[in-house]
Each structure stands twice: as structure tokens, then as C-alpha cells.
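Q: Sequence in, structure out?
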Amino acid sequence: KALPSVEKNQKALDRYLESRNKSKWAIGRDYEMYIGYLYENKGYAVEYKGIIDGFDDLGRDIIAQKDKEICIIQCKYWAQYKEVHEKHIFQLFGTTMEYWIRNFGCHEKQNSFKEFIRYLNESRLRPIFVCSTNLSDKAKEMAAVLNVKIVDKFPIGNFPRIKCNTN
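A: Exactly. Output:
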């Protein structure tokens, strides 16, 4: 009680960071924040969809934009023994297409898919799947075919925390 508020808040933050009893939601949020932090350091403008929208994020945790490049990023921080399957790759590809339709899509049906593929091939729209564990062989195969970039076995690291909930 005698500590100044800055020191109290720092102690609370340190306790949180050292805690092993975080909920799955808190672990996922921290991982998304870390990945977003890395993109911010590369000069991207980052929108945190998963943290803000929860289950309504449509399978896109982060939207990172820089120049004419838009990255649609799905993050999974899972236990090492788990394996990511192709359904998660399909969801990311589908939500990337939905983003394109809503923001750039041509409304002429015969040209829409070709234009979407052009955006992917030119890396103007990039689906990126970041996870802490392995992907199944089928998930890797589907990611390669669908032009989904995979960053697997990627651990969480330290990043600056601005706010601290001391409750």
C-alpha cells in the first residue's frame, strides 16, 4: 500500500506476465498482440480484429497494412502436441476472399475470382497463418496451393504493455 502507483502497477504487470494460470483467451490475446507488435515494428498499420471483435472476427485476428500490401493474419497459440489442420487454412483463405469482396471486389461475377487471384499473386493481399505449433501435411499442402503464407512453430516473445488491469 505504501508503494507509489507506478510501482504498484508494475508489480501487478510483472505478476500477470509470470502467471501460469492465464485463460486460453488471455494467452491468445497476448499472442495476437505480440504478432501485431512485430508488424507495427516493420511499419505496418495494425488493426486487432480478434481482440476487438472476438468470435465475430471472421477468422482474421490482425489486418496489417503497409503501402499497397494488406496482410490478413490468423494467429493460433496452441500446445506443442496439437496440430493445425487444413480447415484453419481454408477459413483464412475464405475470410481473405470475403475481405477482398467487401473492400475491392469487382461485382462482375466472371471477373471477380480472377481479380482476387491477381491480388494474391501480386502480394497486395496476403493471407498469413502464424502458429506456435506444427501443421499437418495436408494443411501445408493446401496452404501452398492457396498461396497462404505459413509461419509455424513461432513462439511468443516479450513486447511492451501499455495498460495494466490491477483488479
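Residues 128 and 149 are 5 Å apart (CA to CA).
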